[in-house]
Amino acid sequence: METKKCKFWLPNKNRFCANSSLTGSLFCGNHNSRSPGQWIPCPIDPSHSVLEQNLKGHVKRCPLLKQAQSLSVQPFYQKGINAGSDGEQEEEESGVDDSRLPTATISSEMKRKALHSMSVPEFCTLIEKIESFHDSLCKDVQESVQMPEVCRLWIKRGVEDRKLPFQEKHITQQASILGNLERFGVLKNSLGRKTSKCEEPVEGKEDGVPAVIEFGAGRGYLTQMLADCYGINRVFLVERKAYKLKADRSLRQNESMMLERLRIDIEDLNLNAVESMQGVPFVAIGKHLCGAATDLTLRCCFPEYRKDSSEQDTASANGNFEGLAIATCCHHLCQWKHYTNKRFFLDLGMTKEEFHAVTWFTSWAVDDNHGSDLSNTTNCTSHLQSIRKEQGDGDSNGVEKILSDMEAAERAALGFKCKWIIDMGRLIWLRERGFDAQLVRYVPPSISPENHLLIARPSH
Predict the structure, then answer these.
(1) pTM > 0.70
(2) Contact (Cβ atoms closer than 8 angstroms) between residue 283 and residue 223
(3) Phi and psi, residue 260, nearest 5°
(4) pLDDT tens digit sequence for 242-261
């Protein structure tokens, strides 16, 4: 019997939807008109929604219920331990803890509407602040594109043997992340190193090589290059999703390798409760940790800076941390609640609402040609000043019109500047806590416009 196809027309693809239609309907589940009533996000998995009157029955049979239950019983699961809170700075000063209170996520649409509701003078003042802060804070950011010899040889061998899922832009980024860790003194060049497969690692560390934790590991190919090139024998991959075509099989071919996947959201990971991590020196890495995942990772690695940390957590964290390299991205997904350095923005005279506006601007950084970095060449302050004089408060659609009239290069430049300011706050957070830290461009924008790398190590 032939399956009936959905009759919803897709004008961009110039064809009908290819999904099967629902029983008794001309359309599939995606295109069938919704029942009247209030749809709310599923409390188990907010990526889908359900009718409010059906919620009680749905939570008992949600397909992800069993998965969520199995994840929550893991010994290192602690709900929201690395989340932060909206009033974090005020809590530090008043001693009141509201971290357990629910906080709504501010969506991109909510950020856009808040921005459009600004008056023209308010909007222009915000842009002037961004331009000024970028000029004063982001002068010492350096280019640091690296290709270590050990990585170059590894890539060449893998391509020749056809054993690598080779994508130049990704593998170039991976090599530069590792090269910057080597340049910064966190990793030691392993050329000429002879590693015995019969030799057992001692307390998670062999020949001065620490364990590695990759946050947001995905398929784990960054760790694969790191382990193969730098003699790493103990690896922890932190990832909340399940992936196919992982690097795990290749990594496990090394008989001396200890590999453990932690299936958990970084927000809920109590690193000191991972039994096999006890007393193990580690280096933390992450390639493209989207939005707030960077802030969650920083809190996870340094539990001594959480309000609920114990003396044992503090001693463990201080003694075990050996280095960090995080390639940040997707700054438009950042949230005030999770951001590590709220004090940085407050001291600049910016509010929580202005922070969310700054995060919304960052999405513009990927709108234009990525052949060159625009953040130091394009300034839209003078243009906005003339607009402020012409329009004042008279036009209710003033901000929306200004945004639509901006040139692509202006929009992209503003987006890049906002990215730098957000990452600069994270850099300052690390330095204020006594770490040696740098923020560099680790690949050219032609390889990826998301080219910020945050690296750190203990000051000693």
Answers:
(1) yes
(2) no
(3) -135, 125
(4) 888 788 888 888 888 899 99
